[in-house]
Amino acid sequence: MSTSGNCALRKINAGILSACLIGLGLSYYTYVVETKKEQDDSYKAMCDISENISCTKVFMTGYGKGFGLLPKNSVFNIPNPIYGLLFYIQIIVLSMINNYTCSAAVVALGILSNILSIYLAYILYVFNNICVVCVSIYIVNAAITFFAIKEFRKLSIDIARKKKK
Question: I need a surface site. Which of 23, 39, 62, 64 has the fewest CB within 10 A?
Fold first, then answer.
């Protein structure tokens, strides 16, 4: 791969890494807020701005664990931010490998995260609520998918070039 190709991949990876670090921070914040709210019902988070702009209002619903999709007694019915932390760590690892298969996996995971983001955004709509942290995570997931597709295309082009030689 050419030096310019390596530079382009480094820039794309920097975009993915930056988005993942923001996602990790937001997921960690979400976990802290959920934990504090569970321990103290009077806890008011920074993201609780008004009656209709409240993160804890949404975090504390049944959709805050297992995305509201898993049975309550399931071992996988854990707080969503735990899934977020695992997701962003996995994306960081896979995106740094810079091969076609891992890149395809990052694209697939990015698309899945956006499908879940749309689903959870709909839940916000149903609750007539705006969650600043949630919306920020949706933006991060869209950015990861954008960069993942760029990386996948770049690697696909590089593979095609190698086959022509």
Answer: 39
CA distances from 140 to 1, 29, 147, 148 (A): 29, 15, 11, 12
pTM: 0.92
The CATH code belonging to domain 3-164 is: 1.20.1440.130
**Does residue 96 have a pLDDT over 90?**
no
- Give me 3's structure tokens: 């030096």
| Cα–Cα distance for residue pair 106/63, rounded to 1 Å | 25
For the stretch 120-153, pLDDT in tens is 999 999 999 999 999 999 999 999 999 999 999 9
Paired tokens of 27: 């997921």
Taking the CA of residue 158 as centre, how many other CA atoms within 13 Å lie in the half-sphere pointing to its CB?
Answer: 18
